[in-house]
């Protein structure tokens, strides 16, 4: 009963109505804006989105008012194959799977590769170009400066400057990195409920851009002054785009005296030929009752729990010698094909008496999170009394307190939570 309830929450099944009647739902949105030639008002958009309405055959991507658009291609991210699409009006969308569509809007209607499976997803990439003079224009007050000024409601975004331009302004905290072709990319994660009124400014470099290697070819670490850590500059460090990372995890805390929590974590495998996912159980914890699913198809996958010598016997790489207490959970799936990927959901129950404990009339949860998106659901019947890392707080469908953490930094956060029985 508990497991079926958790599955229902995790997959966000909506009532018992048909997909044609259910509102369109989606998750894991990511948008990349590539600014085209200055003065053109054009920017290419690569939009990754996951349809989650069970049984849905179509996905509708709204076209922002005031923009002209050209759709280049739409792709099923699971197989890498092209999908059929057409531009439709709001009335058509309402009648064919998007009952809340605005009648004044236009939509890119995508025919999914397969109906969204119960407990699964449909992952789509839309490649298009917009022309919008209100969003991308020359700065009237400073010659040569270009401006990208746009409200972005998607939670994960990147903006890529034209080749030969340097970043001179961003009004929201961003990561910055140079791409392989020497264009500058800024990216960010939005933890809040509203859109970000992003304004990015750039100007031409005085010298032509040249290809910058992604890591140093020599010279070693450069000493740094001060008391910071590391004590030597990481000259080979590569900035990973945090906004693009799509690993996320949800913890369902059980009653504190059990020291246990049920969790699921989602992961996309893109490496060609890979046929397994290996989860190394954290020291001090033990795992039980694992399950795994291919979210693209809804298929349940084979799972093995291995310990000590069993790990080497199965040829599992854990990054070194496996000790007698080393424990892994291995999920097996069909090898990833060229241009394809697979989205996995892994369920496990962890027992961790060191980091989740009862303490008098309260519980204490003290755990490091390395993923960019993490959610903690408090035990049934408990209220929140302390939370160290800022998070968005609400109630789930069963009245349990839920905390969502978005960490845009490349390092982990040490989350400390306390609760008291109601």
Short précis:
The chain is mainly β.
Task: Outline the structure in words.
The structure is a single chain. With about 425 residues, the chain is mainly beta. The protein folds into two domains: about 20-205, tricorn interacting facor f3 domain (Immunoglobulin-like), CATH 2.60.40.1730; about 245-420, tricorn interacting facor f3 domain (Immunoglobulin-like). About 5% of the residues lie in helices and about 45% in strands. The chain contains three helices and 31 strands. The chain has an eight-stranded mixed sheet, with no helix packed on it. Strand 20 and strand 21 form a beta hairpin. Residues about 1-20 and about 215-225 have low confidence and may be disordered.
What do we call the CATH topology of the largest domain?
A: Immunoglobulin-like
* Number of DSSP E strands: 31
> Into how many domains do the coordinates divide?
2
Radius of gyration, in Å, reads: 24 Å
Q: What percent of the residues sit in helical stretches (DSSP H or I)?
A: under 10%
Instruction: State the CATH superfamily name of the largest domain.
Output: tricorn interacting facor f3 domain
Known CATH architecture of the largest domain: Sandwich
The gross shape turns out to be globular
Which class of secondary structure composition applies to the elements?
Answer: mainly beta
- The neighbouring-strand order within the major sheet is 21-20-24-18-17-27-30-29
Q: How many DSSP H or I helices?
A: 3
Low-pLDDT parts are: 1-20, 214-227
Instruction: State the distance separating the first and last CA atoms.
Output: 23 Å
């Amino acid at each position: 009963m508990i497991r079926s309830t958790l599955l229902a929450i995790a997959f966000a099944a909506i009532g018992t109505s048909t997909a044609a009647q259910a509102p369109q739902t989606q998750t894991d949105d990511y948008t990349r804006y590539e600014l085209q030639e200055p003065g053109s008002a054009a920017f290419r958009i690569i939009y990754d989105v996951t349809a989650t309405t069970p049984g849905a055959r179509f996905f509708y991507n709204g076209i922002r008012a005031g923009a002209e658009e050209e759709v280049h291609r739409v792709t099923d991210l699971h197989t890498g194959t092209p999908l059929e699409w057409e531009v439709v009006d709001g009335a058509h969308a309402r009648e064919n799977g998007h009952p809340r569509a605005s009648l004044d809007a236009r939509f890119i209607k995508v025919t999914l590769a397969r109906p969204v499976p119960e407990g699964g997803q449909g992952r789509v990439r839309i490649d298009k170009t917009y022309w919008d003079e209100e969003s991308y224009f020359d700065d009237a007050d400073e010659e040569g400066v270009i401006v990208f000024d746009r409200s972005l409601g998607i939670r994960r975004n990147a903006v890529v400057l034209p080749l030969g331009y340097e970043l001179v302004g961003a009004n929201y905290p961003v990561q910055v990195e140079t791409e392989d072709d020497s264009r500058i990319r800024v990216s960010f994660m939005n933890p809040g409920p509203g859109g970000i009124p992003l304004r990015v400014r750039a100007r031409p470099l005085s010298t032509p851009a040249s290809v910058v290697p992604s890591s140093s070819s020599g010279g070693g670490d450069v000493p740094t002054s001060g008391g910071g850590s590391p004590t030597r500059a990481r000259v080979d460090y590569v900035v990973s785009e945090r906004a693009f990372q799509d690993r996320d995890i949800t913890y369902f805390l059980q009653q504190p005296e059990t020291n246990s929590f049920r969790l699921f974590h989602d992961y996309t495998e893109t490496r060609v030929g890979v046929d397994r996912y290996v989860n190394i159980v954290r020291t001090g914890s033990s795992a039980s009752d694992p399950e795994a699913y291919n979210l693209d198809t809804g298929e349940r996958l084979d799972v093995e729990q291995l310990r000590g010598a069993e790990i080497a016997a199965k040829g599992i790489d854990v990054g070194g010698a496996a000790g007698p207490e080393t424990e892994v959970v291995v999920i097996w799936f069909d090898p990833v094909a060229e241009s394809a990927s697979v989205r996995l959901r892994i369920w496990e129950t962890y027992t961790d008496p060191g980091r989740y404990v009862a303490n008098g009339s309260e519980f204490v949860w003290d755990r490091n999170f390395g993923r960019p998106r993490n959610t903690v659901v408090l035990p049934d019947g408990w209220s929140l009394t302390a939370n160290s890392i800022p998070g968005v707080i609400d109630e789930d469908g069963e009245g349990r307190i839920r905390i969502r953490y978005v960490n845009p930094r490349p390092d982990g956060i040490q989350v400390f939570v306390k609760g008291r029985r109601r």
